[in-house]
Each structure stands twice: as C-alpha cells, then as structure tokens.
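For reproducibility, we list the full input for the NAP complex.
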Amino acid sequence: LLADLALVGFGNVGRRFAGLIEERRGRLAADFDLTLRICGIATRRHGSAWDAGGLDVARAAREVEAGRALTSAAGSADLIAELSRSDAPLRIVVETTTLDIAAGQPAIDHVRAAIDAGCHVVTANKGPVAFAYDELRDRAGAAGVSFLFEGAVMDGIPIFNLVREALPLVDVIGFRGVVNATTNHILSALEDGEAFAPALARMQAAGIAEADASLDLDGWDAAAKTAALANVLMGARMTPHDVDRIGIDEGSGPRAREAVAQGNRLRLVASASRGPDGRVRGLVRPTVLPGGDLLAGLTGQANALVLQTDLLGEIAIGQLGGSLTQTAYALVSDIVTIRTRQPAPAGARARRTL
Ligand SMILES: NC(=O)c1ccc[n+]([C@@H]2O[C@H](COP(=O)([O-])OP(=O)(O)OC[C@H]3O[C@@H](n4cnc5c(N)ncnc54)[C@H](OP(=O)(O)O)[C@@H]3O)[C@@H](O)[C@H]2O)c1
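The corresponding predicted structure, in tokenized form, follows.
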C-alpha cells in the first residue's frame, strides 16, 4: 500500500524521521506491505518543496543543513492541498513544527487543515494535543482519518499506544513522572558538582533541548506534556497554562547537592490527579524524592512515567535515554498504526504473528 507524505517541519525531528523511514523501508514493506513516499516538505524559513512523484529527501536535508533554502515558496497550506489531490490510498501529514507555548499554533491549524483535506496526521508537536485534543480527536473522527501524536510526550516511549492498545477498561486516575530530558540531564550534572551552563549547552548541541531552551528550564515543556497526558488519558480538557508550574535555574544546584547529601534526589516531577470536584489538577515542580523512589533513580536523559490506575495499581514505563531516533520512531509507529487500521484485502493473511 502506498502512502504519500507531506512533512510540515523539516528540522531535527523531521529530518531524522525521513532518514529512519529510509533505513526501515524493507521492513515496512515486508511486515506491513507499506511504501512511504515523501512528496512535500514545508519549513518556516527554508522554503518548501513538492514533487508528486517523490522528493529526493536526502538532497533536501543536505540543503537545509547547509543553511540553504528549498526552491519553492509554497506554504504548508498549499502543500496539504497538493497532498489531498494525491491518489495514493493513504495520505499523511507529518507535523513537526516548533512548539508554541502561547496557544499551540500554527500546529493546530496544520492538523485541522490536514484533517479537513481528508489526510491522516501524525505529530511530535505537543501543541495540538496539549491545547486542542478534544476538538481535533472529534474532527478527525468525523472525517474518518487518524490524528496520532505518540512522539509528543516522552519521545519513543509508547505511552498513548500502551493505554489505547493494552489497557482496555482501565481508568487512569493520575500520573507522576520525569518527562523532560533536558532538565533531568542538568539536575544530574548539578548533583555531580557541574555548572548549569555547560550541561544545558550539551543538550542544545544534541538537539534535545527545545529551540528556545527556556521552554525546558521554566517547566513549559513539562507542563505541555502534563496537559497532553491529562487530556488524552484522563479527559482533562486543560492547557499548559492551567498547569501549576515551577522550573529549574542556577539556584537548583545547591538544592540538588543538599538532596544528595541527605540520601534524596531533586527531580523535576510532572504530575496530575483528580480532585474531589472531579477536576484534574496538573503540577510541575522540582521535588525532593527519597533515594529509593523510582523517579529518583533516573539520571541524565532518562524519562519515566508512573500511571496510577483503578484496576492495575501503579504501572511504570520509561526509557534510559531519549534521542531524535526515538521521537522519529514514534512518528513511524503512528504511521504503522494508520496502516493497520486499514481494512485488509479479502483473503490477506497477517504477516506478523506476534
Ligand atoms: N528534538 C526532540 O528531541 C523532540 C522530542 C519530542 C518532540 N519534539 C517536538 O518536535 C517538534 C520539532 O522539533 P525539532 O527538534 O525538529 O525542532 P526544529 O529543529 O527547530 O525544527 C522545526 C521545524 O519546523 C519548521 N517550522 C517552524 N514553524 C513552521 C511553520 N509555521 N510552518 C512550517 N514549518 C515551520 C522549521 O522551519 P525553519 O527551520 O525554516 O524555521 C523547522 O523545519 C517540536 O514541536 C518539538 O517540541 C522534539
């Protein structure tokens, strides 16, 4: 089955996604009978490109990495319109633009435009799910397309897939986690007596920190993830601005070292719980945790989330180090989900038995 793709955003994540689908081309075909063809790329300052027969994406990546612009000036709306005219059985917009913490835009408009054009949409941007989850889910449902966002929270950790696919009938009643790799890396470095600035610089050099690193440090990224998780898993209808939020700064060094001296750990903890009035409250706080707490043991870029559930008690899921590959993988896994949602042709046998 052929899927034509338009990439809206072609930065660190978008380019790694393009590389990963090339590396997994054989497996996508063998395991899922799926061929992905990138026909469009849109950026903000590096131009755009469209070729209905498939772009030379490696070349486009080299151009953008060298700071040059792609040749077309068409905007993302034009590209989505082009994609909607493709006669490929699957048309998918891959949204990886920069997080906007004021209102989640223009990513929400990109998702709306994709859905309204009859295209599926996958995104690693937290904005749509943190600011407009209910609306976009319902819009996609009415249009008969998928809106998926596994990469928006905790890179490749399959948190939304886990709850959707593996926990039927289970209610998530709360969660707490370490969900921001940049601040966890910095707190670990501070514990070891390192200075704040070089630890942050390492995360920026690795492409892990947000384009505007204050989004990580001030807790906005964690607040956006908290809102996204609470909206999807707990029906919260909140935005990142509703999350009670404190981040980390240079002053976190002495607190982190004092915590270690007492057998504890300072971690930036994101959490949500439902109050007696039924409303979900989100919190992001540097928190002193006992040394034996599962979240206290997370060092460097490690992330983990503990879900509090009604039927299964507490379930933890984590990863020891996130990277661009994990985020790109989340986008690919969403595309595989879209593929597996398509009705199988009569007489087809499942290719995977697990
Ligand atoms: N990096 C990570 O490890 C990671 C992990 C999970 C989730 N995410 C999320 O994934 C998204 C992308 O992250 P990234 O690291 O790839 O960021 P990035 O390197 O800054 O790339 C962002 C891309 O979006 C483009 N863009 C921005 N605004 C646009 C607009 N209005 N229309 C079209 N294109 C636009 C940029 O174009 P120009 O370069 O021309 O401005 C660039 O190509 C963000 O939302 C981020 O929060 C990132």
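The chain has 13 helices and twelve strands. Residues 126-143 form the longest helix (18 residues). Both points were considered when choosing residues for closer inspection.
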